[in-house]
């Protein structure tokens, strides 16, 4: 047991020696910076800051990593140095796609599996490269199959249960400004695998490993999984459930082909193809059907449809959800952001909202407003016009302008009444 503990501690250190760990973190960082820039461009604020977005998936990613590690260690999944280099090269080719679905290691593993039969065994003129290619010829496809199916299953479960959403603005086919949500997340889960050279796994009792085949050690490998779709006709939680279910079916089909490969080895490549085609079709089919439907985030004549809610805001405390409609604010009928902002100013310390929920039922939501609260108490809406949302300064200027116009109109009406009285 002492050697096992020593290998476990060494595995943690190896995680921080792996270049993919830092490449993944940088990739996640720039992915969320891009999201924040889009949110600021559309709403003059970020929905979630980069650090929070990086840290919030960590707990479930760790749980998923432990689950994967148990499967990998029990089944004796071994990844050679050459295979890790192949994974790294394939993943770097995925990076320019700048899409969470293509950042996933499920794609990396599937593409690598399909590439292996076509790689030469040597003859490159480089001794080091020839050694790597020779090592790839000896890859155990059973280990790759376990890796692929496990990652696909975990990705489906994670996306269905904990995908995050980010609101955005887009043009409808009729040229109107409507809202939508990008439902996505990326989970960086470190999982233990076996690598050549170590002591714990070669003691003969290791599950599914023959101790005479060589020595192995533990290594924590960073596996990045994730997915992304855009939805405008259904709510974010509904979209993640539907797409997550399709991803889960894809994982089960891949698992079935993997099981069949015990009887017909060529089916292991079919499992990889199923993962690639299933993941792609899950998103494409959903988005095609969604794009042909009308957005639920559109401007309405009676009330303001909520497109998004800022975390930790007053709106979140009031349990306001995307897709709900705010009809009245502090007793005033509201149909525009300017009217909503102006109604909030009538009681700067308190807000009472009449909200129509997703089922069409009305409810009253009320809460105190504090000095540092968002100027729309954390609600994000479709623009009042066809251009863009106004910032706090823009809304203030618009409200002042409207008040001036109303006062001017009242003064003119009074002058007309006075003139008529004098004439009579």
Automatic annotation (TrEMBL):
Q: Which InterPro entries match?
A: PDZ, PDZ_sf
Q: Which UniProt keywords apply?
A: Membrane, Transmembrane, Transmembrane helix
- Location of the region described as Disordered in the Swiss-Prot/TrEMBL record: 404-424
Q: Does the keyword section mention Transmembrane?
A: yes
Q: Can you give the residue ranges of the PDZ domain? A: 274-359
Has UniProt tagged this entry with the keyword Secreted? no
Transmembrane segments in this chain: where? 15-33, 79-95, 102-121, 141-159, 205-227, 247-272
Protein name per Swiss-Prot or TrEMBL: PDZ domain-containing protein
Q: What is the lineage of its organism?
A: Bacteria, Bacillati, Bacillota, Bacilli, Bacillales
């Amino acid at each position: 047991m002492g050697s096992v503990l020593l290998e476990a501690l060494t595995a943690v250190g190896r995680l921080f020696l792996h270049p993919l760990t830092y490449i993944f973190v940088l990739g996640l960082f720039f992915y969320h910076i891009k999201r924040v820039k889009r949110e600021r461009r559309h709403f003059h604020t970020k929905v979630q800051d980069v650090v929070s977005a990086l840290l919030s998936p960590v707990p479930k990613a760790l749980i998923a990593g432990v689950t994967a590690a148990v499967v990998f260690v029990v089944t004796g999944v071994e990844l050679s140095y050459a295979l890790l280099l192949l994974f790294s090269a394939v993943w770097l080719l995925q990076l320019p796609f700048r899409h969470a679905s293509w950042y996933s290691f499920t794609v990396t593993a599937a593409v690598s599996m399909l590439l292996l039969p076509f790689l030469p065994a040597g003859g490159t003129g480089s001794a080091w490269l020839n050694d790597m290619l020779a090592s790839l010829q000896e890859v155990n496809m059973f280990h790759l199959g376990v890796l692929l199916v496990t990652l696909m299953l975990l990705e489906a479960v994670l996306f269905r249960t904990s995908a995050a959403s980010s609101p955005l603005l887009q043009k409808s086919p009729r040229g109107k400004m409507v809202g939508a949500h990008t439902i996505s997340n990326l989970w960086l889960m470190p999982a233990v695998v076996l690598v050549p050279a170590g002591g714990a796994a070669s003691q003969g009792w290791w599950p599914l490993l023959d101790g005479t085949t060589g020595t192995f050690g533990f290594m924590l490998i960073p596996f990045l999984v994730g997915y992304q779709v855009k939805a405008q006709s259904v709510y974010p939680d509904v979209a993640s459930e539907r797409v997550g279910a399709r991803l889960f079916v894809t994982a089960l089909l891949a698992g079935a082909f993997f099981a069949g490969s015990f009887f017909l080895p060529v089916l292991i490549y079919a499992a990889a193809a199923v993962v690639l085609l299933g993941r792609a079709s899950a998103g494409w089919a959903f988005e095609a059907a969604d794009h042909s439907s009308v957005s639920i985030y559109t401007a309405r004549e009676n009330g303001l449809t909520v497109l998004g809610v800022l975390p930790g805001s007053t709106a979140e405390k009031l349990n306001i959800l995307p897709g709900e409609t705010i009809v009245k604010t502090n007793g005033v009928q509201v149909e525009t952001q300017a009217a909503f902002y102006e109604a909030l100013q009538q009681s700067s310390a308190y807000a009472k909202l009449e909200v129509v929920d997703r089922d069409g039922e009305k409810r009253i939501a009320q809460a105190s407003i504090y000095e540092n609260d968002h100027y729309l108490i954390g609600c994000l809406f479709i623009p009042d016009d066809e251009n863009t949302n106004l910032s706090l300064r823009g809304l203030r200027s618009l409200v002042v302008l409207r008040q001036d116009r109303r006062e001017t109109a009242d003064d003119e009406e009074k002058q007309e009444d006075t003139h008529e009285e004098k004439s009579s």
